[in-house]
Design brief:
This protein is mostly helical. The protein has one domain. It is about 70% helix and about 0% strand. The chain has a two-stranded antiparallel sheet.
Length: about 500
């Protein structure tokens, strides 16, 4: 029932990614520049051209490097005499990064539309790479059907289509979470030294994609302990197994720092004057609530050979203090800088297609029935061993959600995107388990028809939303037209409709 030819599977996967590429590209052509894109494009271009990290240090560089790479072939004029770049002030304001982006795109004789399309196209390729990685890994752990289900959910996600075509760091965060987890699970299964090194590279890659992925550290520690408990050859050898894994885990982190974080940041600060870096670091993190972390960052910044790590810790502390301090947001008619506990659950419920939630419910029933059967047969440990990857995916979703709910930064569902690939793997697995359990039931074909109709609804919801993916809200919210009543900013109106407004005014 579940066998699917490899050739057909790969062809279908290619078609899904092609559809995603077309919908992402065509929908972004008529979207004006959104708020954060201005800073990211300018900052990324300055990194590659000047090797100077004075702009946008609160985000790691890799996503911005990818954004800016095609701009190297456009022969752009760099506004290096503008105050937003020279920053001769004692404490350059935070918004100077936006001033520089505006100067680069609109006031230096460059073609802004050309820049925007080139930069966004690079991110669409990154989005497709993430889709391929999800398909490849889910197919590897669960078979062809699991891979196709996960990729289908990915390819037609309104949230991924909305933010995967913009020059922001959210797709990078999802990619980093997935590749670091894949590398770590491979290391746990075969803790050889080559796998330790590869896991270290994957972990380091995640750390230069998004600072929120620091949550990978407790997550990886948790699954390492669980794995050691489940797979230790004997109970009395569990402590020894844990110690061996933890030593190698420490080495993985060290490899990530030495081979990825340090050299990448060194490349980016080559021409960043040390006195400017120290001045800017003091200005950015002087009010950080953790004095020891702040002092460590300043100490690293003051030493020439360690400046790269100082810049990394500066960005990490900037991100953490912003999460702690919050950001003014609008939610269900309220305006506040603090967080709402209901913010992310409400947005996930209302901004993801209803069909996904119903498929998730069926998948949850399937997984629960599978686990309950294992408990009744007294084979729970065997079930956990056989489904450890699924357990790890669930733990990551829980860890990241706890982090999101405990922070004060409520500015968009996009901040949940690092969990999306894992959710799709979980749903695909749960659906498969559901049908394996009920395949002998009389109404199995009827249930299968219902699931197929839900996928049809899911895909239709995405295609109907074209090209307004960013402002999408599902039927439970009253549709996109009523979305402004729930939450705005990057959930609804992020400045993407100025081209359309211009066309309307011309008429």
């Amino acid at each position: 029932m579940w066998r699917l030819n490899n050739k057909i599977t790969n062809i279908l996967a290619f078609i899904l990614l092609l559809i995603m590429a077309l919908t992402a590209f065509l929908s972004m052509l008529h979207d004006s520049l959104t708020f954060d894109e201005l800073a990211h494009i300018g900052a990324g271009y300055s990194y590659l051209v000047k090797h100077d990290y004075r702009l946008n240090p609160e985000h790691p560089p890799l996503s911005k490097d990818i954004i800016a790479f095609p701009l190297l072939f456009l022969n752009l004029h760099f506004p290096d005499q503008h105050p937003s770049w020279t920053q001769e002030e004692a404490a350059p304001p935070w918004w100077s990064q936006f001033d520089f982006g505006r100067e680069l795109l609109y006031r230096s004789g460059n073609n802004p539309r050309q820049i925007i399309i080139a930069a966004r196209s690079a991110m669409i390729l990154f989005l497709l790479l993430l889709g391929w990685l999800l398909f490849f890994y889910s197919k590897k752990i669960g078979g062809n059907l699991i891979g196709l289900i996960a990729l289908t959910l990915f390819a037609f996600s309104p949230t991924l289509l909305a933010h995967g075509r913009l020059t922001n760091t959210d797709i990078g965060a999802a990619f980093g979470a997935l590749i670091a987890t894949i590398g770590w699970l491979h290391f746990l299964k075969k803790p050889t030294w080559p796998n330790v090194f590869l896991a270290g590279l994957a972990f380091g890659l995640a750390m230069i994609l998004k600072f929120s992925l620091i949550l990978l550290i407790p997550f990886l520690a948790i699954i390492t302990l669980i794995y050691a408990f489940l797979f230790a050859p004997e109970k009395r050898k569990i402590p020894k197994t844990v110690i061996v894994y933890l030593i190698k885990a420490f080495l993985i982190g060290l490899i990530g720092v030495v081979f990825i974080i340090w050299p990448v940041y060194q490349f980016h600060i080559q021409n960043y004057p040390p006195d400017h870096q120290l001045r800017d670091t003091i200005n950015d993190i002087s009010g950080h609530p953790l004095p020891l972390a702040r002092d460590l960052s300043l100490w690293l910044t003051k030493h020439e050979s360690l400046r790269a790590l100082g810049q990394y810790t500066r960005g990490l502390l900037m991100a953490s203090q912003r999460t702690a301090w919050g950001n003014t947001a609008v939610f269900c008619g309220e305006i506040a800088a603090n967080s709402w506990l209901a913010y992310f659950p409400t947005l996930y419920l209302l901004k993801e297609p209803l069909a996904l939630h119903l498929l998730t419910l069926i998948a949850l029933i399937g997984a629960s029935l599978s686990l309950w059967r294992a408990i009744r047969q007294r084979s729970c440990l065997t079930w956990l061993k056989n489904n450890f990857v699924i357990l790890a995916c669930l733990i990551w979703v829980l860890v990241y959600w706890i982090g999101a709910l405990s922070g004060n930064l409520n500015i968009g569902i996009r901040h949940l995107m690092p969990t999306f690939p894992f959710v799709y793997i979980l749903v695909a697995f749960g659906l498969k388990e559901f049908f394996l359990i009920i395949k002998s039931i009389r109404y199995c074909r009827l249930v299968l028809l219902i699931v197929l109709l839900l996928f049809y609804w899911y895909i239709s919801s995405s295609l109907i939303a074209f090209p307004h993916y960013l402002s999408y809200y599902n039927e439970l919210a009253g549709g996109t037209v009523n979305g402004y009543k729930i939450a705005v900013d990057s959930n609804y109106d992020w400045g993407q409709d100025f081209y359309r407004l211009l066309e309307f005014m011309k008429q």
